Sequence to fold (426 residues):
Amino acid sequence: MINPSEPTDWREGRRRSARDAIVHAAWALVGEVGLAGLSLRDLARQAGITTPTVYAYFESKNAIYDTMFGHAATEFADRMAEPIDGDDPRDLLVAYVRRFVEFCTGDPARYQLLFQRTLPGFEPSPEAYAPAVRSLANTQELLALNEVTEARHLDLWTALITGLVDQQVSNDPGGDRWTGLIDESIDMFLAHSQQHPTRKPSPRRNRTKGPRS
Amino acid sequence: MINPSEPTDWREGRRRSARDAIVHAAWALVGEVGLAGLSLRDLARQAGITTPTVYAYFESKNAIYDTMFGHAATEFADRMAEPIDGDDPRDLLVAYVRRFVEFCTGDPARYQLLFQRTLPGFEPSPEAYAPAVRSLANTQELLALNEVTEARHLDLWTALITGLVDQQVSNDPGGDRWTGLIDESIDMFLAHSQQHPTRKPSPRRNRTKGPRS
DNA sequence: GTCTATAGCTGGATAGAC
DNA sequence: GTCTATCCAGCTATAGAC
Fold:
């Protein structure tokens, strides 16, 4: 396979590893100065090169963000796709959410890039975005195992889980004030979803008001 | 009361209204270019003045953000403090949450400034922050009326509600995909909180795993 | 591919005339 | 208080030698 007259393979390899080194430096930097605080000067210094060299590998700053986004999305998909031992549907769900929250809280900058859209002028390319979509299907399967299939409940689920993550990241970084509520949250959610398969004003008691506007 | 030799009153008034005009222009701008996209040049142009004039009223850009924060916080506190008719605790809670979500989705930039801490280098002053604190106590009272008093449930509550708002703002701005889940979310939350006054592994069924780590 | 040097721009903030 | 003019720092991005 090795053919000296066709050295594109290892050249590509070198090019890839150089790109990876830059992206690696970028992750290290945003961990310190925040996602929006990344500057190409500092990035070049961190990577041990100069600014123009960065442009030998990336055509723009947003291209770097996009590559970072792709890395993060792949990392996310891989992490969430790892098999979980056990066969109880609810336990699977709990383990899955723990994983999700750990992933999010493990690197706030990565979380911000992947799930909050706060970078002005940056939109991830479809290629970079693809792995994240794959993972959503994964969630649906797990919920289906727990007899949760309605779109409404899926939305309620995402709201609940992202709410936990958001509160944890913003108000108690590094702590467990909200991650400690995962188990209870899932109890709450499943009790509700499995009990209300179709939407009607819950028969809790007589409503005092007429139908909602 | 009116004393020509003491004209500080109306001068203060003029100064206040000039400041208000600048802040007003600032809100209009951030509504277009995003909170972080505000620049003093554009702000001055929007307000029909020049950049140095801005500095006649504010000592820095962050001072403008701080004033905006104070306005938003006051607006928020006032809105949430308006009386709600009805006496059923749950209905009060529903109305309250609707109000909250409407306030948040009504102006995403305002929401971002008040509740997400995404402006690099900006921290609201204690004075500007005070009204927001007042409102939190309000929430606690409403939950207490619904027999929800434990700190754990309060955290679960904030996660649930902010999750709804966040999903609505980020993924369906202007729509009702998540706001339409408010009623159901509150059902879910109250059913759980009122049923689990103290924490123990829910007696749903036998757990397959040992105690959590 | 990597560098030095710098263009070109935009940002916040200030000096000083009026 | 308001302006013109400007400073200075930071940024992305490029030109051109090696």
Chain B touches chain A at residues 34, 36-37, 86, 88, 91, 116-118, 120, 152, 155-156, 158-164, 166-167, 170, 177-178, 181, 183-185, 187-189, 191-192, 196, 199, 202, 204, 208-209, 212 (CB under 8 Å).
